[in-house]
Amino acid sequence: MQGLMMDYQLTLRPILERAYRFYPKREVVTKVGATTHRYTYRDLYHRTAQLAHALGKLGVRESDRVATLAWNTYRHLELYFGIPCIGAVCHTLNLRLPPDQLIYIINHAADKVIFVDASLLPLLEKIAPHLKTVEHFVVMTDAPLQTSLPNAHSYEDLIATEPTHYDWPDLPENTAASMCYTSGTTGEPKGVLYSHRSCYLHAMSVCFGDGLGMTTNEIMMPVVPMFHVLAWGLPYAATMLGAVQVFPGPHMTPRDLVGLIESERVTLTGGVPTLWLGILNLLETEKFDLSSLRSMVVGGSAAPQSMIEAFQKRHNIRVVHAWGMTETSPLGTVCNLKREMLDLPEEEQYRIRAKQGIASPGVELRAMDEDGKEVPWDGKAMGELQVRGPWIASAYYNDERSVGRFDDGWFRTGDVVTIDDDGYIHIVDRTKDLVKSGGEWISTVELEGAIMGHPGVLEATVIAVPHPKWQERPLALVVPRPNAEAPTKESIIAHIAPRFAKWQLPDDIVFVEAIPKTSVGKFDKKVIREQYKDYVLP
Ligand code: AMP
Predict the structure, then answer these.
(1) How close is the Cα of 195 to the center of ligand 1, in Å?
(2) I need a labelling partner for 521 at 20 to 30 A (CA). Which of 121, 169, 254, 445 fits?
(3) Whose CA is nearest to atom 23 of ligand 1?
(4) pLDDT above 70: residue 112
(5) Does residue 152 form part of some domain?
(6) Which of 92, 186, 320, 325 to mutate to test the pocket of ligand 1 (most atoms within 8 A of CB)?
(7) Does any ligand 1 atom lie closer than 6 A to the CB of residue 386?
(8) Which residues are catalytic?
(9) Where are the alpha helices (DSSP H) in 364-456?
């Protein structure tokens, strides 16, 4: 119809340019050893332009895949923009994956160039002979190049003499911008391809007050790796707003992270629960000034209510629980309390905050039962969560396993949920992790959350083990908290018993030094199930 709005294409270029135009002096900080590397959005812009020229000289063309094997750093941020803004695809590689999965992913994506942090060279050198499509390796280091990789270049040498401005192409918004593979807990990882449009809209949703509420005055530190769902879109959102970004590099211990929050006065950060549990444990024994922190976003696995309460009550830190997946960019739901909930008793508020929240504006959700019928929003009926929206995958990248994961335009998440009458979802479990006991389902997530509320417990996970009579029964693995009174089986069962029916309680509890984790820091239930498949319950 005549007189309609502009058909403006939503791409990453204006996000980068906005930071350069309006916030040229704002800093991007990266921890490098005992010191920090600091530069500004003006530097970021110029170096990204130089990178774009260098990519062209390496022969990178539109829709070519260019991979990164890197920690959270300023150079990784340059790649986040430089690669997509010339129309190529930034493929972030998970540096914690086993070599055979990395080889599979790189060959499947047909990456043309790989950018690698010098500290990760040994990993890449080992797998390089198996890579079929890679033409160049670019090493990100300030030191002279030292590698056995063929066709290797130094990042700094490559960009040094390039012009600091680039005539960015006007890309259609549905151009592919970046890709991540799922962490592959079952079978080979699957590729998810994000578009400029999906990244742009997702970044806006991070900024919504009802999203993560990021503002220009934020000092944002993504602890979630830049290879895990684009660091949850936090770097794109922060650049869009010109917010200060703080990158921990490879320095990921609780002490490093707490030190950075304290010294850089970080206001917003995000990562998986196991990481915050480690930080919580450190805060119990040592004093740090974390008063700058207004919000700590937790997702990737369920945040135990006890953890949310401990941060709030003992350290005045607000934990915001969110749910998402590689396939959902990832922000699908965020748990912010509605105004009318602020009058509820405190305990009730914490109970809601331990849920995963309501759909982010822009995302639609529903839960479906096994017969394909939508389950009621009563907080009780369980169903598989399905979502759709502008930043939800429509298929996997060149993968037949897309079949069966999409239902009439909805993405089937594989997560079992209940939805209450306020619309708050509660993740009960992954379909494959639920314990099936005598025809009834037991949620491992709920048991874990409750056990981690015991003061003597640092980490806990629950798996199903085969049982001759009941088919499956729950077994808990528990890591005791250092410096606390050692927990006993009896004390743990007594602690959680009021919240569960007797038949839902674990049949046994095994105390362990550590729980195996996936490449993105979640409890690795596939590995744990394998380890305990012959475990004989008492
Ligand atoms: P990934 O693609 O590696 O990010 O894994 C996505 C999966 O992590 C989801 O399907 C959920 O099973 C799980 N997940 C993510 N966020 C949460 C959360 N807040 N609570 C419980 N599980 C979560």
Answers:
(1) 21
(2) 121
(3) 301
(4) yes
(5) yes
(6) 325
(7) no
(8) 182, 327, 436, 441
(9) 444-451
Sign of CA dihedral 437, 443, 445, 447: negative
Q: How many domains does the chain have?
A: 2
Which of 326, 396, 427, 431 to probe ligand 1 with, by most ligand atoms within 8 A of CB? 427
- At 538, which CATH number? 3.30.300.30
Any domain includes 87: yes
pLDDT digits 0-9 by tens, 59-75: 999 999 999 999 999 99
**Ligand 1 within 6 A of 182 CB?**
yes
- Residue 188: which residues within 8 A CB-CB, separation 6 or more? 101, 104, 108
> Would you say 406 and 412 are in contact if contact means Cβ atoms under 8 Å apart?
yes
* Residues facing 436 on adjacent strands: 441
Cβ(319) – ligand 1 distance below 6 Å: no
- State the distance from the centre of ligand 1 to the C-alpha of 301, rounded, in angstroms: 5
User: What is the pLDDT of the chain when averaged over all its residues?
Assistant: 96
Is the peptide bond between 330 and the residue preceding it cis, with omega within 30 degrees of 0? Answer: yes
Q: What is the DSSP pairing of strand 219-222 with strand 191-195? A: unpaired
Contact 51, 14 (CB under 8 A): no
* Nearest Cα residue to atom 20 of ligand 1: 302
Q: What is the strand order of the sheet 219-222 is part of? A: 35-40, 27-32, 244-247, 219-222, 268-271, 295-298, 319-324, 331-334, 358-359
Cα–ligand 1 centroid distance for 426 (angstroms) = 12
Domain with 466, as residue range(s), is 433-538
Q: Which of 179, 196, 213 is the last residue of a domain?
A: 196
pLDDT band at 439 (very low <50, low <70, confident <90, very high): confident
Within a domain: 358: no
Q: Is residue 375 one of the residues assigned to a domain?
A: no
Q: Burial-class residue 244 by CB neighbours within 10 Å (0-12, 13-18, 19+).
A: buried
Residue 221, C-beta contacts closer than 8 angstroms, at least 6 positions apart: 245, 246, 247, 248, 257, 260, 261, 264, 266, 268, 269
**CATH code for the domain in which residue 113 is found:** 3.40.50.12780
* CA nearest to 359, candidates 208, 190, 178, 174: 208
What's the 123 CA to ligand 1 centre distance in angstroms?
A: 27
Query: pLDDT tens, 268-317?
Result: 999 999 999 999 999 999 999 999 999 999 999 999 999 999 999 999 99
Q: Output the CA 63–ligand 1 centroid distance in Å.
A: 29
Final residue of a structural domain among 166, 196, 226: 196
Cα gap 324→318, rounded to integer Å:
19
pTM over the 0.85 mark: yes
